[in-house]
Write a structure and sequence with these properties.
The protein is of the alpha/beta class. Among the domains are: about 130 residues, Response regulator (Rossmann fold); about 170 residues, 3-Layer(aba) Sandwich (Rossmann fold), CATH 3.40.50.300. It contains 19 helices and 16 strands. The strands form five sheets. Strands 2-1-3-4-5 form a five-stranded parallel β-sheet, sandwiched between helices. A five-stranded parallel β-sheet has the order 7-10-13-6-14. It has a two-stranded antiparallel ribbon with strand order 8-9. Helix 1 crosses helix 14 and helix 14 crosses helix 16. It is elongated and about 85 Å long. It starts with 5 loop residues before the first strand and ends in a 7-residue tail after the last helix.
Length: about 450
Amino acid sequence: MINTSRLCLVEDDAIMRASLCQRFKIEDIGCDCFTHAEEALGALAERQYAALISDIRLPDMSGENLYIRLLDSERPPPPTIFITGYGTIDQAVRLLKLGARDYITKPFDLDDLLAKLREVSPSLFEDMHQGNAELGVSPAMRQIKNTLDRLAAHRVDLLITGESGVGKEYAARYFAQRYNKGTDKPFIAINCAALPEDLLEAELFGHVKGAFTGATKSRRGMFEQASGGVLFLDEVGETSPRMQAKLLRTIQERVVQPIGSEDQIPVDVRLVYATNRDLKAMVDRGEFREDLYFRINVAHVHIPPLRERKEDILWLAHRVVENYFNEHQARRLILPLTERYLEAQPWPGNLRELANAVERACILSPQEVLGPREFGASGEEPLLSPDHLSLKEAMEHYEERLLRETLEHHEWRIAETAESLGISRKNLWEKMKRYDISQPA
């Protein structure tokens, strides 16, 4: 039976292999990675993959010979895409005649590769909860995504709560996209805590010419500007009692009265509120209007902090790395050791703090690989020795360390270790032999 969530990748270039694996992780596609054709042949003999991506130039044999070996085996090869930096038309024609599904040359766009992969093996994407990763890959964020999908189909306002930096505005934007259904209806956001009361009132409700000093012309407020779409009121818990009263009237009657005007203007707007405050406690203390609280707390989504959904830590970190590459064409790689370091941090600033830390590490690191020290860890051995290891040597050094630590964690149980690393048992044995790793007596 085809494993619809796993892909076989054969690539000996460490940076290219890591970049592809990072992108597949972002897309929630399981991937077994190999550097040698013989390793891949062993894995392909043990299990049936949904697709195979292979480089042409490999250390032990060519990708073309790998494919021919698969054609001669009992199990037919999965849909196969070849990638190479040294391709020729004749070779491409030969491979396609043999049955390969596609052949692309380096450098290539990762989105193009994913599009080709979706064409040749749709099963890879069928069980991936497509779209869920727009907010995160943790069970909590998948559930929130499903809740927002349902709420978008109903005419109710939405309250989003959670600590600072958890992604409340991301959730609001996703909700607006689902509500607007791909149209050009507006999404307008305003931080209620960032403006003085008078300016906030003018921004929300608008004003007519001459309403106050400096009002040289009339201006539509955000309620009007967002009409037909979504208005996002961030930090609504920071509004003054006077502003709360004006918001309550507007929410109840769906009309606004610009400053200096006697006219009331109807607005058709979907409202999303967000706060990091406990509004119920504020009501009990007399700091927030109870009637306004009940008006805005019709549909409520609470986003948990990052420390309670650790699955989203690496998801976000790899997305930031990918965005950095797309913007600067400078490749960065988060080492497995660094991934574990990131997952162990509390991240009190949540997504905002983590994204800033990863972007800062990408900018300041003098090398392509990001070790724990790039994130402020102390006591870790340097990524590069005084002799300046090559990138290949550094990657092998950390691969050996990862193998030893994972084996020790699983008490040298080969099957559990191989499953944890996402490789076959044969591949694990071969790597242990290469690095002279054996269980202590």
